[in-house]
């Protein structure tokens, strides 16, 4: 097997592992095709089991013949290995470097991983578009499923099945696709049952400098409006950026051609700006020696929380159009694969109670991120430590998870899942034994035959034993629209992710456990009271007879 | 009442300070002898105590009326619009008079009457007994004695009558030392750590100038270090920045010269003075009061205000003190300039880290009585109870409360009390409703006859104990379980619930804390009910129930007849009340926040607020 060539030294003894908040451990280091394993000498227990794909960057240092490798992980953890022997150390370092940056997707761990658990429900079939559509079709007949993209020919980044207005035929869709960036013609993202308003998403219209128009496009989006109603187009770029896009063949909807629509520009940052923001934030969080002033200024200049505020504000605006103004909306940026999806998915968290349940949230990620063609492979190839900055790397999805966490903080009883669930999703997006987040879109995934060759994350997550860890004990279904506050005083640094490895969470974890105990005890007592009352009532009626 | 010309104004509008939409509530404004009351059209009442008013401002007349902005010491800011300028002017003038009293006797505490008799009132004052507290600490003992030197306030007016000093410190030594210390505040015991036999002592700065020395003072310090049988050296912590301490030397004051004192280790810890703290908080509040505040402005405001830096400095000092005692077993003498601001902060916070008793409700009251009230923290001047020098006002005590809050955040199970308790105490240092915080030292309080004329706050807080309990509190901790907080900068956060406690739109919509607190309460009720039901069941199965017993079951459990289809909620109606969600009605002003945010930054937008579409691009 190819991996053997990459592993020059598979095993080194007397390696010392240093981690913050744990005592140093001495043990034997082993390299396998996909893991770095350290077992302590005493009882052969594993102290560390690290997936190569989780490694973002490594540094090496030498003092005499003692080598030190500092491993920086995509989940922001930093560990240190002291390896005796210069040659061993160099070999290990070069192996890690090679194994953590494999070129071919099919060499990645998900293709080799064999689950140790029984699959109760195959996650690859948990969220089929047909099933999702059934949820809507009972409420409206204005929409239909289209199989136009079955061969991924019309839009390479769309799934084979999309939801479009009933009155628009596939021929028209084909024309609209040529008018929208990446062929991403407007499709249904969300249907608000309360008032029948919808969120649609697409790529930018290709108007260019000469103001090209497309009648079918106009017809398509107008078909979603009720008589006499207006809709809103939310462009996730600033007006300036949108105008500049015309020079490159892109653009925005001219009001003359879309008289029933009002356009709002709500700028959300993307690409390298987010990536740089994340790098700065993680750097600030990792330095324990910062003075207060320096810490606050680093936190500020990272701009991470500004991006959080921007995304949440845009999502609230979208939700406001739907729920308060009773208006349908179309959301797009340039490609419609990043900021667009942040807005459509966050708006659903705000509007739709189902998306705040575990299954509903999984369905949301499946629909609005995976099937909608967010390029996970490109965006999440590297994390905050890597030096080789590629312009397509960007923590868009992490930003989305952070926004969800902010809403969860403000409505701690309205979500079926807890913070831990969000953290686990973050980990699996960057490095996973499951195939779910491989590839950039459904077309790539189907070519890779992920369904046949890898396991779905949902197959594991949705097992009762795992679900219990992800369940929020405070959850009580709440059918309301939840409006978060976006004031800076209400937004917080997501400590569970960004300070996770930099502070001891012992006391916080204990307090959480105590909270769970109180809730469990409450349930127990209530059940007991009910049983006793019932028994007493039965005794009473017996006596009565 | 002579200051009140208008007692009632109708059609007054109240604006939300963070709402950007000019939406307002209309209601009626009432002015009473003690409070300003606003009742809005939903019959919601807002009571503002005159003593809580920090400033009243009348803004320029607008078309809708005359704006009146009231800033309160508990960080409430209200913005009224009074339709007629005449009324506004009257209220403005009345509030100016009523919020600034010239005499203690005019403060609310002297008229507040909670319907208690004299015996009850006196009992209330006796709830916290400092003699008992020193006994709990383990003094007097073979090394520490109660000194009667200050029994008549002759040596130090701002100290309490009863002071604990080393056994070997004779009266001449005390008198000599007091003459060498600012305001006569010579070194005395603040906390005795029984486990290590080390002590926290406090005093004011020495009048050393550039070279002066005092043998009695040197003796007294030596006596303190000798009172610790384990470790002969002691720390002297000067809580000021070194530069400030040096500047004081020119005025004949200063700090201890290590060469003159045997066995001392001198240390500066650099907490800024009351003036720096005052302007720091002012800056912070200014920034946070801005409408449509951006994240960057928020953080750069936090940074430039320096507030969290100051809080961290106080915390670091307390940790230094606790470590000296726990790790080195050394006694510590703490002082600043006068020894009633920074010294109180560091001594009390240090004791709280060392002794879990101070983390209980009662213990926290004792701590405040001891290190703040009895040792002469000038509450009346620092809180501006009377119309006086605004330069004396400073949030020193608030800073202490904030440090405690940070500890409760880091150690959620270590405190018997919750955040509401801290907020309530803060409310009352300014309210002047109770006598505890009136005056600047014990002598002044005795002259005011506070114990005869006013009530003590503590029994009232204890009566409401349930509200202030931390449901996660773990009482298993040993007495000397030391808290070792992290003071890495990222451990400090903005205390939203203090500085925005009345800005409800900024808060989480559901409170985990309240749910758990109510659940804990409910669990106790359920336990009781189970016991009750079990005993009834036993009686039922033991024999034929009496007629009375049957009767007693029926009215309490009406749902039992339909026991097959009952739901948990019908049995336990409390459950519904546990969870409330705010902010889902259309009057919610966060709604407009989003709209504002885009309409300001982008000209080419639709103003959803008014339902009118305007395009300008």
TrEMBL record, chain A:
Coiled coil: 508-542
Database matches in InterPro entries: Myotubularin (IPR030564), Myotubularin-like_Pase_dom (IPR010569), PH-GRAM_MTMR6-9 (IPR048994), PH-like_dom_sf (IPR011993), Prot-tyrosine_phosphatase-like (IPR029021)
Signal peptide bounds: none
Keyword Acetylation on entry: yes
Entry's localization field: Cell projection, Ruffle membrane; Cytoplasm, Perinuclear region; Endoplasmic reticulum
GO terms, molecular function: enzyme regulator activity; protein phosphatase binding
Family matches, as CDD domains: PH-GRAM_MTMR9, PTP-MTMR9
UniProt membrane topology term: Peripheral membrane protein
UniProt superkingdom: Eukaryota
GO CC terms in record: cytosol; endoplasmic reticulum; perinuclear region of cytoplasm; protein-containing complex; ruffle membrane
GO BP field: negative regulation of autophagy; phosphatidylinositol dephosphorylation; protein stabilization; regulation of phosphatidylinositol dephosphorylation
Keywords recorded for this protein, A-Z: Acetylation, Cell membrane, Cell projection, Coiled coil, Cytoplasm, Endoplasmic reticulum, Membrane
PROSITE patterns: PPASE_MYOTUBULARIN
Domain Myotubularin phosphatase: 123-498
Entry keyword annotation includes Transit peptide: no
SUPFAM superfamilies referenced in this protein's UniProt entry, alphabetically: (Phosphotyrosine protein) phosphatases II (SSF52799), PH domain-like (SSF50729)
Family statement drawn from the similarity comment of this UniProt entry: Belongs to the protein-tyrosine phosphatase family. Non-receptor class myotubularin subfamily.
Protein name: Myotubularin-related protein 9
Species this chain originates from: Loxodonta africana
TrEMBL record, chain B:
Domain Myotubularin phosphatase as annotated: residue spans: 124-499
UniProt keyword annotations, A-Z: Coiled coil, Hydrolase, Lipid metabolism
CDD domains the record matches: PH-GRAM_MTMR6 (cd13343)
Keyword Ribosomal protein annotated: no
Highest taxon listed in the record's lineage: Eukaryota
Active site: residue positions: 336 (phosphocysteine intermediate)
This protein's GO CC annotations: cytoplasm; nuclear envelope
The keyword Protein transport is annotated on this UniProt entry: no
PROSITE patterns reported in the protein's UniProt record: PPASE_MYOTUBULARIN (PS51339), TYR_PHOSPHATASE_1 (PS00383)
Name of the molecule in the record: Myotubularin related protein 6
Protein source organism: Loxodonta africana (African elephant)
Gene: MTMR6
């Amino acid at each position: 097997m190819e991996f053997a060539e990459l592993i020059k030294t598979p095993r080194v003894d007397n390696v010392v592992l240093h981690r913050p908040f744990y005592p140093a451990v001495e043990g034997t280091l082993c390299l396998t095709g996909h893991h770095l394993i350290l077992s302590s000498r005493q009882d052969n227990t594993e102290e560390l089991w690290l997936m190569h794909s989780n490694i973002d960057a490594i540094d090496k240092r030498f003092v005499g013949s003692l080598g030190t490798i500092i491993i920086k992980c995509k989940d922001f953890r930093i560990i240190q290995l002291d390896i005796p022997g210069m040659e061993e150390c160099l070999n290990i370092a070069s192996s890690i470097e090679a194994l953590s940056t494999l070129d071919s997707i099919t060499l990645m761990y998900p293709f080799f991983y064999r689950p140790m658990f029984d699959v109760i429900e195959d996650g690859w079939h948990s969220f089929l578009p047909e099933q999702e559509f059934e949820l809507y079709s009972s409420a409206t007949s204005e929409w239909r499923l289209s199989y136009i993209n079955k061969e991924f020919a019309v839009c390479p980044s769309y799934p084979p099945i999309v939801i479009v207005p009933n009155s628009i035929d596939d021929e028209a869709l084909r024309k609209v696709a040529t008018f929208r960036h990446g062929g991403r013609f407007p499709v249904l993202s969300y249907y608000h049952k309360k008032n029948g308003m919808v969120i649609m998403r697409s790529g930018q219209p290709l108007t260019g400098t000469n103001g090209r128009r497309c009648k079918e496009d106009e017809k398509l989006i107008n078909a979603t409006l009720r008589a006499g109603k207006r809709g809103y187009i939310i462009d996730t770029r600033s007006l300036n950026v949108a105008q500049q896009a015309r020079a490159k063949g892109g653009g925005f909807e001219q009001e003359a051609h879309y008289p029933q629509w009002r356009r709002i520009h709500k700028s959300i940052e993307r690409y390298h700006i987010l990536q740089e923001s994340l790098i700065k934030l993680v750097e600030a969080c990792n330095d324990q020696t910062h003075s207060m002033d320096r810490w606050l200024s680093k936190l500020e200049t990272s701009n991470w929380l500004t991006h959080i505020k921007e995304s949440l504000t845009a999502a609230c605006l979208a939700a406001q159009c739907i729920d308060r103004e009773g208006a349908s909306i179309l959301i797009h940026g340039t490609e419609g694969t990043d900021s667009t999806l942040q807005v459509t998915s966050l708006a659903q968290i705000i509007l739709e109670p189902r998306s705040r349940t575990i299954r509903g949230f999984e369905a949301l990620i499946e629909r609005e991120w995976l099937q909608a063609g967010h390029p996970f492979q490109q965006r999440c190839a590297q994390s905050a430590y890597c030096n080789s900055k590629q312009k397509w790397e960007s923590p868009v999805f992490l930003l989305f998870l952070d926004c969800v966490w902010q809403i969860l903080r403000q409505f701690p009883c309205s979500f079926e899942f807890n913070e831990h669930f969000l953290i686990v999703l973050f980990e699996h997006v960057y490095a996973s034994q499951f195939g779910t987040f491989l590839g950039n879109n459904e077309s790539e995934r189907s070519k890779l035959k992920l369904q046949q060759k890898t396991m779905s994350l949902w197959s594991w997550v949705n097992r009762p034993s795992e679900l219990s860890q992800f369940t929020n004990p405070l959850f009580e279904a709440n059918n309301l629209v939840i409006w978060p506050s976006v004031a800076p005083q209400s937004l917080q640094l997501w400590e569970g992710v960004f300070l996770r490895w930099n502070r001891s969470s012992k006391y916080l974890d204990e307090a959480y456990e105590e909270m769970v105990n109180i809730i469990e005890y409450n349930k127990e007592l209530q059940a007991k009271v009910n049983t006793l009352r019932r028994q007493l009532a039965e005794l009473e009626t017996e006596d009565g007879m | 009442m002579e200051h009140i010309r208008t007692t009632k104004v109708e059609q007054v509008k109240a604006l939300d300070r963070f709402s950007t939409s000019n939406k307002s509530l209309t209601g009626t404004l009432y002015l009473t002898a003690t409070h300003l009351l606003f009742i809005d059209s939903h019959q919601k009442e807002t009571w503002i105590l005159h003593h809580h008013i920090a400033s009243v401002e009348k803004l320029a007349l607008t078309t809708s009326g005359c704006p009146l902005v009231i800033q309160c010491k508990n960080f409430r800011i209200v913005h009224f619009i009074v339709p007629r300028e005449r009324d506004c002017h009257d209220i403005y003038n009345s509030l100016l008079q009523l919020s600034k009293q010239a005499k203690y006797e005019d403060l609310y505490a002297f008229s507040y009457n909670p319907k208690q008799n004299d015996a009850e009132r006196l009992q209330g004052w006796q709830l916290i007994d400092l003699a008992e507290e020193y006994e709990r600490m383990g003094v007097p003992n073979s090394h520490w004695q109660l000194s009667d030197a200050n029994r008549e306030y002759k040596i130090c007016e701002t100290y309490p009558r009863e002071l604990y000093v080393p056994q070997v410190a004779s009266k001449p030594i005390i008198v000599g030392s007091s003459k060498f210390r600012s305001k006569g505040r010579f070194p005395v015991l603040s906390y005795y750590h029984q486990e290590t036999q080390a002590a926290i002592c406090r005093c004011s700065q020495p009048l050393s100038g550039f070279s002066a020395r005092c043998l009695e003072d040197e003796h007294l310090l030596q006596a303190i270090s000798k009172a610790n049988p384990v470790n002969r050296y002691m720390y002297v912590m000067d809580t000021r920045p070194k530069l400030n301490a040096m500047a004081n030397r020119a005025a004949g004051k200063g700090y201890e010269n290590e060469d003159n004192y045997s066995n001392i280790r001198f240390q500066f810890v650099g907490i800024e003075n009351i003036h720096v703290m005052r302007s720091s908080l002012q800056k912070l509040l200014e920034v946070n009061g801005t409408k449509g505040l951006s994240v960057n402005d928020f953080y750069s405001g936090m940074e430039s205000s320096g507030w969290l830096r100051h809080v961290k400095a106080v915390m670091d000092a307390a940790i230094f003190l606790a470590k000296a005692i726990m790790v080195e077993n050394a006694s510590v003498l703490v002082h600043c300039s006068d020894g009633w601001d920074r010294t109180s902060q560091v001594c009390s916070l240090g004791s709280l880290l060392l002794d879990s008793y101070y983390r209980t409700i009662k213990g926290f009251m004792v701590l405040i009585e001891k290190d703040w009230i009895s040792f002469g923290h000038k509450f009346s001047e620092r809180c501006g109870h009377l119309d006086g020098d605004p330069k004396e006002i400073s949030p020193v005590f608030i800073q202490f409360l904030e440090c405690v809050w940070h500890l409760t955040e880091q150690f959620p199970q270590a405190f018997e009390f919750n955040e509401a308790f801290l907020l309530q105490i803060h409310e009352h240092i300014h309210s002047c409703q109770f006598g505890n915080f009136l005056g600047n030292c014990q002598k002044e309080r005795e002259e005011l006859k506070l114990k005869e004329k006013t009530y003590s706050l503590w029994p009232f807080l204890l009566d409401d104990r349930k509200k202030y309990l931390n449901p996660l509190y773990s009482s298993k901790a040993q007495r000397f379980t030391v808290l070792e907080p992290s003071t890495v900068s990222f451990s400090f956060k903005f205390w939203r619930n203090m500085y925005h406690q009345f800005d409800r739109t900024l808060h989480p919509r559901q409170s985990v804390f309240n749910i758990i607190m109510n659940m804990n309460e409910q669990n106790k009720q359920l336990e009781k009910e189970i016991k009750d039901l079990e005993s009834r069941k036993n009686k039922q199965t033991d024999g034929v129930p009496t007629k009375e017993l049957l009767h007693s079951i029926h009215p309490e459990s009406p749902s039992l007849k339909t026991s097959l289809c009952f739901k948990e909620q019908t049995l336990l109606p409390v459950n519904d009340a546990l969870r409330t969600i705010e902010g889902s009605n259309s009057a919610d002003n966060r709604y407009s926040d989003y709209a504002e945010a885009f309409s300001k930054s982008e000209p080419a937008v639709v103003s959803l607020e008014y339902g009118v579409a305007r395009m300008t691009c």
